[in-house]
Amino acid sequence: MIISTNNLQEIRNQIQKIKKTNPKEIIVVKAGDEEFNRKVLEIKGVNVLLSPEINKGKDKLKQRDSGLNEFLCKLAKKNNIKIGINVQEIAYLPAFQKASMIARIIQNIKLAKRTKTEIILWPENKYKKQDIMAFITVLKGSTEMGKKA
């Protein structure tokens, strides 16, 4: 189930409802800015943080505003939360925005590789294992990351 709200209390309430009815349900939270992402990564019960690269922040000269940093990746690893990349959102963007989004994804993959955080492609069951592995390795991920994704 995808939760896409910016209210943290509402996210906690929805997680509790979902866990009561179906404890094995995968809970996906749509990402926001870095502060929101940090608070979401601290919530117990979240399985996937979806598309942290899609935010309204402006890129800096030497670094992309990709919604993640090393601390957030370590926090995700500690709490066993995966970082999700929504490929469908990228497919329908104009060329300039698509290039910017892919550059942010590359930065997130580098951070995840450094901190050994898991990355998945969303929706999960739509892509073949070979396609996922090729996508991750083309964007500077390791083959091990591609196999786990």
Structural summary, described in words:
With 149 residues, the chain is of the alpha/beta class. The chain has one domain: Metal-dependent hydrolases (TIM Barrel, Alpha-Beta Barrel). The protein has 7 helices and 5 strands. Helix 2 links the parallel strand 2 and strand 3. The model has no long low-confidence stretch (mean pLDDT 87).
In which order are the strands of the major sheet placed? 1-2-3-4-5
What is the CATH topology classification name? TIM Barrel
* Inertia-based shape: globular
For the terminal residues, how far apart are their CA atoms?
19 Å
Please specify the SSE layout and strand pairing.
Layout: E1 2-3, H1 8-21, E2 28-30, H2 34-41, E3 48-50, H3 70-78, E4 82-86, H4 87-91, H5 95-115, E5 119-122, H6 129-138, H7 143-148
Parallel strand pairs: 1-2, 2-3, 3-4, 4-5
Helix pairs in contact: 3-5
Give me some keywords for this one.
single chain, 149 residues, alpha/beta, TIM Barrel, five-stranded parallel beta sheet, 7 helices
Question: Summary?
Answer:
By secondary structure, the protein is α/β, with parallel strands linked by helices.
